[in-house]
What we know:
This protein is mainly α and 154 residues long. The protein has six helices and three strands. It has a single domain (3-149), classed as Sufe protein. Chain: A. It has helices at 8-18, 22-34, 41-44, 83-96, 101-105, 123-149; strands at 51-52, 61-66, 72-77. The longest helix has 27 residues, at 123-149.
Amino acid sequence: MNxxxxxxxxxxxxxxxxxxxxKERLLLLLEFxxxxxxxxxxxxxxxxxxxxxxxxxxxxxxxxxxxxxxxVHLFVTAPPEAPTTRGFASILVQGLDGLSxxxxxxxxxxxPNTIGLAAAISPLRLRGMSAxxxxxxxxxxxxxxxxxxxxxxx
Length: 154
């Protein structure tokens, strides 16, 4: 992984996980799950706007926005009964929201594998986490491309 492409918030989160013993990492993930922000009304009242992350066992939905300043905003919902997935969703929201399109797209695809949870959670859950990041990046790419195609000034 190229350290230059990891945004400071994600690097800090990764380092926080890696500084802990395996059992404590799960507790930290649980803390993150409790910090996942609620969806704003424009999405909670219109769940049809959100995209399901099929690779996740739990019903996880996400939506990204790219504002006029090329800043990404990430919205994710995951049920409280799925604290592992909800925790990783919270990590992504905290680590990606407010970054530029280029910074989000530069996040290494294997970021979920770098935070030291491989021994603590199933490979299926790790794949779900990777899929969540991949979907977010795909949506950001699509929004960037559609706004560029619409003739917006960059």
